[in-house]
Amino acid sequence: MDYRQRIQIDPAIRGGKPCIKGTRITVADVFDYLGGGMSIEEILEDFPDLAAEDIRACFAYAADRARRLNAVPREAAV
Predict the structure, then answer these.
(1) Which of the 8 DSSP states describes residue 26?
(2) What is the mean pLDDT of residues 57-71?
(3) Considering just the CA atoms, what is the radius of gyration of the chain in Å?
(4) Residue 7 · residue 65 · CB < 8 Å
(5) Whole-structure pTM over 0.90, yes or no?
(6) What does the buried/exposed string (b/e) look like for 24-36 if buried means 16 or more CB atoms within 10 Å of the residue's CB?
């Protein structure tokens, strides 16, 4: 999935935090709801502007960010 079709970073929206396009819901908000015990179905019920693909895009964004943050520069690995 290309999360960039659904996740945007705009300094004018929520201080530049990554948000689901067309909303003010951040990727972190979605993970906070999930971590608080909400199911994906409950999130979608509470936020009818969201689609299941938006939730998947949050996971794809987080996975991509984790890969980039955990990358060790080649010189440092030696």
Answers:
(1) B
(2) 90
(3) 14
(4) no
(5) no
(6) ebbbebbeebbee
